[in-house]
């Protein structure tokens, strides 16, 4: 009799679990669960796992700059501004710096724009340095760790190297004052001077409302095989070719301009977003820097990103399994791009599309206002939370100094 | 940009030096030097540093870039004099600069910066060889040279990054494969991928649980039957949902029609209707309505389940139509675009496509019907088939309606009360003009296609003359005995004169009596040339058949 009851209980439990698994399978039929090397962390909630203290800087570091040029809110470097705004009203913010795990300095270094809208990085090192001097004199927390529990958002082309030209950026290297801090940046390339160990790579800002208004019904058949709109040759800065994009974009053009499967051109159509939703593959080649908002657009519109950038590190690489979602093509294999793309097995393509259709994947790439759970802001907080607790050697002994305040180019030492 | 800047200053300096030398030596400037300099087309940039020195204006610099003019050396002379007068110490660096510029001009590539870097900076050989390996690993794709250097470029300046950096900063070659054109097998594979992706999209976002479609088509054997029926057949073969095609044929079942239908792999119900198709359009519309009713009766008898779509042979249907009709509950109405006779040349003003269909108010409820405005065509309306005038549609075409077959069944649960029983319809000479006559209450029709805003099918009637002949099943068996060479194609055996004369004579006959035959069968074409050529061919064929008949 007892054994009969056990068997019955086991049967009931088994059927219950089968039911749950069945429902999960139903979900898997349409989308697939995203789990990166850190686990299924896209849906984690950072609230309660970390505390962030926001320094109160004078408004010349943030508000006044934004007032001077409100275009900063819409360009692809706007992540630094939204990070500040979201932190101010987030539950992870704390007003007690003693209990804070991370310290944030709101300085908008990428908001000095030319008339055509491109950011000039020439004053950014001085601005950053001046902000750090300010926080180190007014609060004791910088000197406690020399910035090891501070994080900074540097969304410029080459991150904290603060230059748009790669050679110059490599020459400058990462700003010396930020050597111990955690950098939240869009630039990521392995074995590159401007990528520090422990940095958090984030997607560039793409306007979520604009993308939302251009959605088309999902049953519109995808009839474009490969889609790309953008420059192939940068005639203004690189007239002979070969420097821009390391020649990869020019190679794409020369090899595939006659290919009907490749819908590539330098146009600026008004139906750019709609066309991406009608394409199976979207090219995301490098430009002057390896990252671009095309990746975000491709993910949001369900088009498989074809990343052509050697050694690139993509956003949230420990949480998102990019090899399973996108296609990576080496720059030297660009002439064989059509062979590569047509020889991908169809099951693999369908699986990638299922992964892209996962709403948590799309949400993780966006900065909606106000912040929503699972969006890029929360993924950054998750990334910061995963780095906790801080190592013991982060805290310096009294009198110990590691950073050299006079290091770096002479021009950086001028006050801002 | 800095290098181009320097080169233009080089050019200017070179010009200055030569002008200076010539003024002293009273000889023409060396011609080879001038030619060498001209080989280097440099984009024109303002030289700011010279402005500080000697007030050389921009125009001078630009002129230096194009052609060497003898008239301009006045100012450079002044420059040279001032330089000459100052102390030798100051002269040293400019001299070196001049020397390098001259050397680079002679050698033909940008020498200065690269050479200095190679000679004076400690360059690790590994990076340059790495870059070479990078290129040489792919011998088949050629490296596209960037102008104006015709040979493979020099290795780039060494990177400051660590030796483990696989990605090198600097100029790279543009890799182009030897045959940058699409491969047919790959294109086929890509299309397979697209087809599979679209199938998956349909499965995920498209219609769930599609109901079968019952297509009702009235037809009869005539010249253009093959044309229209094949078009409809192909459209129906592409419909992804289960389909049954009910073809009602006037004049009984014929071999022509049966042969055409057998080519499709669709389940076809071929129904005979024992009356001949009349010649007058008005009577013809009525007969078609009765043929459709006959099909509806068959659906009722056999209790076929599905959505009834009235697809006329000559109409054009979009595949989205068959997805849209899945939304109908009992009876729905669609917008039909009416393609009447095409506008003649010389008629100006593009009037919008006339549309028959449901009219809705702002909240999406059916309030009326858009119909076709007959007034502009009142005098030009076609009376009988093939008379060359505009064929007009009826007030509301059957093609614009779809209904659930359960409406017709005798016993169906939840059948609405506003539908008349099919047995009572059509008796006592009642004229059924549109499916609305099958209902007692026309307001319960559901508007489809975004309330009639989407046009998913087009109505069209194009017929040959009722007495026009065509070879059985459009196969010439045995082949024609007389073969006449076409006017334009050179025929090797025929003598050059005779056939052309024959054709010219024939054409004269045709031109003088423009027969109705030619115009009706070519009612869609508007170009005169085509009419001439086909008139000729048609005359020949009809001649032949007349002879054969006799």
From TrEMBL, chain A:
Species the sequence originates in: Musa balbisiana
Residues spanning the signal sequence: 1-22
InterPro entries, alphabetized: Exostosin, Exostosin_GT47
Keywords: Glycosyltransferase, Golgi apparatus, Signal, Signal-anchor, Transferase, Transmembrane
Organism lineage: Eukaryota, Viridiplantae, Streptophyta, Embryophyta, Tracheophyta
Domain Exostosin GT47: 49-344
GO biological process, one term: glucuronoxylan biosynthetic process
Listed Pfam families: Exostosin_GT47 (PF03016)
Domain of life: Eukaryota
Any GO MF annotation of the entry: glycosyltransferase activity
Compartment annotation: Golgi apparatus membrane
Protein's UniProt name: Exostosin GT47 domain-containing protein
Automatic annotation (TrEMBL), chain B:
EC number: 2.4.-.-
Enzyme class name: transferase
Domain of life the protein comes from: Eukaryota
Biased amino acid composition, Basic residues: 515-534
Alphabetically ordered keywords of this record: Cell wall biogenesis/degradation, Glycoprotein, Glycosyltransferase, Golgi apparatus, Membrane, Signal-anchor, Transferase, Transmembrane, Transmembrane helix
Membrane topology recorded in Swiss-Prot or TrEMBL: Single-pass type II membrane protein
Gene3D superfamilies, alphabetized: Spore Coat Polysaccharide Biosynthesis Protein SpsA, Chain A
Disordered, as annotated region: 129-162, 505-550
Record-level GO cellular component terms: Golgi membrane
Coiled-coil intervals: none
Biased composition (Pro residues): 138-160
GO biological process: cell wall organization; glucuronoxylan biosynthetic process; plant-type secondary cell wall biogenesis
Intracellular or extracellular location(s): Golgi apparatus membrane
Catalytic residues of the enzyme: 433 (proton donor/acceptor)
UniProt xrefs under SUPFAM superfamilies: Nucleotide-diphospho-sugar transferases
GO molecular function, one term: xylosyltransferase activity
Pfam families reported for this sequence: Glyco_transf_43
UniProt xrefs under InterPro entries: Glyco_trans_43 (IPR005027), Nucleotide-diphossugar_trans (IPR029044)
Function: Involved in the synthesis of glucuronoxylan hemicellulose in secondary cell walls.
Family statement: Belongs to the glycosyltransferase 43 family.
Protein name per its UniProtKB record: Glycosyltransferases
The species this protein was found in: Musa balbisiana
């Amino acid at each position: 009799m007892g054994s009969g009851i056990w068997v019955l209980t086991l049967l009931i439990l088994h059927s219950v679990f089968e039911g749950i698994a069945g429902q999960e399978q139903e979900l898997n039929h349409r989308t697939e669960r995203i789990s990166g090397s850190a686990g299924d962390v896209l849906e984690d909630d950072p609230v309660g796992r970390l505390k962030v203290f926001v320094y109160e800087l004078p408004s010349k570091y943030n508000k006044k700059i934004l007032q001077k040029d409100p275009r900063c809110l819409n360009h692809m470097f706007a992540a630094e501004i939204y990070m500040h705004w979201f932190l101010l009203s987030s539950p992870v913010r704390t007003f007690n710096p003693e209990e804070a795990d991370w310290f944030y300095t709101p300085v908008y270094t990428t908001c000095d724009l030319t008339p055509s809208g491109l950011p000039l990085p020439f004053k950014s090192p001085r601005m950053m340095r001046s902000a750090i001097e300010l926080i180190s004199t007014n609060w004791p927390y910088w000197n406690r760790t020399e910035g090891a529990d501070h994080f900074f958002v540097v969304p410029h082309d080459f991150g904290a190297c603060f230059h748009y030209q790669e050679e110059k950026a490599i020459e400058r290297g990462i700003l010396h004052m930020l050597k111990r801090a955690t950098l939240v940046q869009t630039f990521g390339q392995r074995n590159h001077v401007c990528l520090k160990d422990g940095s958090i790579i984030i997607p560039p800002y793409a306007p979520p409302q604009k993308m939302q208004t251009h959605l088309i019904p999902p049953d519109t058949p995808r009839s474009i095989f490969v889609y790309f709109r953008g420059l192939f040759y940068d005639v203004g800065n690189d007239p002979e070719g070969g420097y821009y994009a390391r020649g990869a974009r020019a190679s794409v053009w020369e090899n595939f301009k006659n290919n009907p499967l490749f819908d590539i051109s330098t146009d600026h159509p008004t139906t750019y977003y709609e066309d991406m939703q009608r394409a199976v593959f979207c090219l995301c080649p490098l430009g002057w820097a390896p990252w671009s908002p095309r990746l975000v657009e491709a993910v949001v519109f369900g088009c498989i990103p074809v990343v052509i950038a050697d050694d690139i590190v993509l956003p949230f690489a420990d949480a998102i399994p990019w090899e399973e979602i996108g296609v990576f093509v080496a720059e030297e294999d660009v002439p064989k791009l059509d062979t590569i793309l047509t020889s991908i097995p169809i099951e693999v393509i369908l699986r990638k599309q299922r992964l892209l259709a996962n709403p948590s994947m799309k949400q993780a790439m966006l900065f909606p206002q106000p912040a929503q759970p699972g969006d890029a802001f929360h993924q950054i907080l998750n990334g910061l939370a995963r780095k906790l607790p801080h190592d013991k050697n982060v805290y310096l002994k009294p009198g110990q100094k590691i950073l050299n305040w006079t290091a770096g180019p002479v021009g950086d030492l001028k006050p801002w | 940009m800095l290098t181009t800047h320097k080169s233009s200053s080089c050019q200017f300096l070179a010009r200055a030096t030569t002008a200076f030398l010539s003024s002293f030596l009273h000889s023409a400037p060396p011609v080879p030097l001038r030619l060498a300099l001209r080989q280097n087309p440099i984009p024109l940039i303002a030289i700011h540093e010279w402005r500080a020195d000697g007030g050389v204006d921009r125009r001078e610099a630009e002129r230096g870039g194009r052609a060497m003019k003898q008239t301009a050396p006045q100012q450079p002379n002044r420059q040279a004099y001032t330089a000459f007068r100052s102390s030798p110490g100051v002269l040293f660096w400019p001299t070196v600069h001049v020397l390098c510029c001259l050397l680079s001009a002679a050698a033909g590539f940008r020498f200065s910066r690269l050479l200095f870097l190679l000679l004076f900076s400690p360059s690790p050989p590994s990076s340059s060889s790495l870059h070479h390996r990078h290129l040489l690993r792919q011998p088949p794709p050629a490296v596209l040279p960037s102008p104006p250097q015709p040979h493979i470029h020099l290795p780039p300046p060494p990177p400051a990054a660590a030796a483990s950096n696989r990605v090198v900063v600097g100029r790279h070659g543009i890799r182009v494969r030897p045959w940058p054109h699409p491969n047919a097998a790959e294109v086929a594979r890509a299309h397979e991928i697209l087809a599979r992706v679209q199938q998956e999209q349909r499965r995920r976002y498209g219609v769930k649980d599609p109901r079968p479609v019952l297509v009702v088509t009235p037809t009869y054997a005539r010249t253009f039957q093959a044309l229209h029926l094949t078009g409809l057949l192909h459209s129906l073969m592409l419909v992804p949902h289960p389909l049954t095609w009910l073809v009602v044929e006037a004049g009984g079942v014929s071999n022509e029609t049966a042969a055409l239908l057998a080519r499709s792999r669709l389940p076809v119900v071929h129904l005979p209707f024992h009356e001949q198709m009349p010649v007058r359009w008005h009577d013809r519309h009525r007969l078609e309505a009765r043929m459709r009713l006959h099909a509806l009766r068959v659906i009722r008898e056999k209790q076929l389940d599905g959505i009834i779509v009235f697809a006329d042979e000559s109409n054009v249907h979009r595949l989205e139509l068959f997805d849209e009709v899945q939304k109908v509950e009992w009876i729905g109405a669609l917008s039909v675009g009416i393609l009447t006779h095409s506008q003649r040349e010389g008629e100006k003003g593009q009037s919008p496509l006339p549309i028959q269909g449901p009219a809705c108010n702002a909240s999406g409820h059916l309030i009326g019907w858009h119909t076709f405005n007959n007034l502009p065509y009142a005098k030009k309306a076609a009376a009988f088939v093939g008379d060359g005038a505009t064929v007009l549609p009826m007030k509301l075409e059957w093609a614009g309606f779809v209904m659930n077959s359960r409406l017709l069944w005798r016993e169906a649960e939840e059948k609405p009360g506003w539908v008349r029983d099919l047995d009572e319809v059509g008796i006592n000479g009642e004229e059924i003009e549109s499916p609305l006559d099958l209902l007692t209450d026309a307001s319960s029709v559901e508007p489809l296609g975004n309330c009639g805003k989407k046009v998913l099918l087009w109505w069209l009637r194009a017929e040959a003359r009722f007495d026009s002949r065509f070879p059985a099943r459009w196969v010439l068996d045995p082949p024609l005995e007389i073969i006449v060479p076409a006017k334009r194609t050179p025929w090797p055996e025929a003598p050059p004169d005779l056939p052309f004369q024959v054709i010219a004579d024939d054409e004269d006959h045709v031109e003088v009596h423009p027969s109705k035959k030619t115009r009706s069968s070519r009612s869609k074409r508007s170009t005169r040339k085509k009419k001439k050529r086909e008139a000729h061919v048609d005359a020949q064929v009809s001649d032949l058949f007349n002879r054969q008949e006799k």
